[in-house]
Design goal:
This protein is α+β, with helices and mostly antiparallel strands. Helix content is 17%, strand content 38%. The protein folds into two domains: 2-105, no CATH class; 114-204, Tumour Suppressor Smad4. It is built from four helices and 14 strands. The strands form two sheets. Strands 5, 6, 7, 8, 9, 10, 11, 12, 13 and 14 form a ten-stranded antiparallel β-sheet that branches. A four-stranded parallel β-sheet has the order 2-1-3-4. The two termini are 18 Å apart.
Length: 214
């Protein structure tokens, strides 16, 4: 198990669990050596920690060959809510270790990152498309993007920020926006700089997430 950061649940004393503690949002040095030895990883940490591990799978072309279990360290995990993972650590660990792989859409962006839970654009103004559909022309309080298994792979929720207009949701394989500078949020992490264009799109391979019944 890859235990990320100080907030990751400690399972060092649980039988049959080899636990490796790494920093929050681990990178190449911590994850890449594990990929040649294991075809199943369990990540204990935040949504951002899981995303950091998945980035390394993507970079090493290991998405199709490694299954991933997830033990969220926060009850507010978007990944857990999205895919129905247990909220208690021991139940989540049992599922992550022994559950069935159920592939889910993997979302990428155009700057080399991934989105495993929820992405946001806050207080944004511009023109956005979900595939060929116009998602936004003007201003919105927020745009939220999540993986979605029921359609082309991605759900795009546009919140106008007024009581007179209900949020709208579109389903697509890709989302792109041109806008006044904004800082996207990926799995609760604010991007390092403001951008005036952004793209999220479904990867050609699914993430082999463990979320089936034990």
């Amino acid at each position: 198990m890859v235990a990320c950061g100080d907030e990751a649940a400690g399972f060092e004393e649980v039988d049959d669990v080899e636990s490796i503690r790494v920093p929050s949002r681990p990178g190449k040095a911590e994850i890449d050596p594990l990929l040649g030895e294991h075809d199943h990883l369990v990540v204990s940490g935040t949504d951002a920690d899981l995303a950091a591990v998945v980035v390394r799978l993507l970079r090493k072309d290991a998405v199709s060959g490694v299954s991933v279990g997830f033990v969220p360290s926060s009850p507010d995990s978007s990944v857990a809510a999205l895919w129905g993972l247990p909220k208690t650590p021991l139940q989540a660990l049992a599922l992550a270790l022994r559950g069935e792989v159920d592939p889910v859409p993997l979302i990428r962006d155009d700057v080399g990152g991934v989105l495993v839970g929820r992405g946001q654009l806050r207080m944004v103004r511009g023109v956005a498309y979900a595939d060929e559909q116009v998602a936004l022309r003007g201003a919105a309080a927020a745009i939220e993007v999540t993986p979605d298994p029921g359609g082309p792979g991605m759900a795009v929720r546009v919140v106008k920020g007024t009581i007179f207009k209900r949020p709208s949701t579109l389903y697509s394989r890709a989302f792109q926006i041109g806008c006044i500078p904004t800082r996207p949020v990926r799995d609760d992490v604010v991007y390092e700089r403001a951008v005036n264009k952004w793209t999220w799109y479904r990867h050609t391979e699914d993430l082999r997430l463990v979320r089936g019944a034990v």
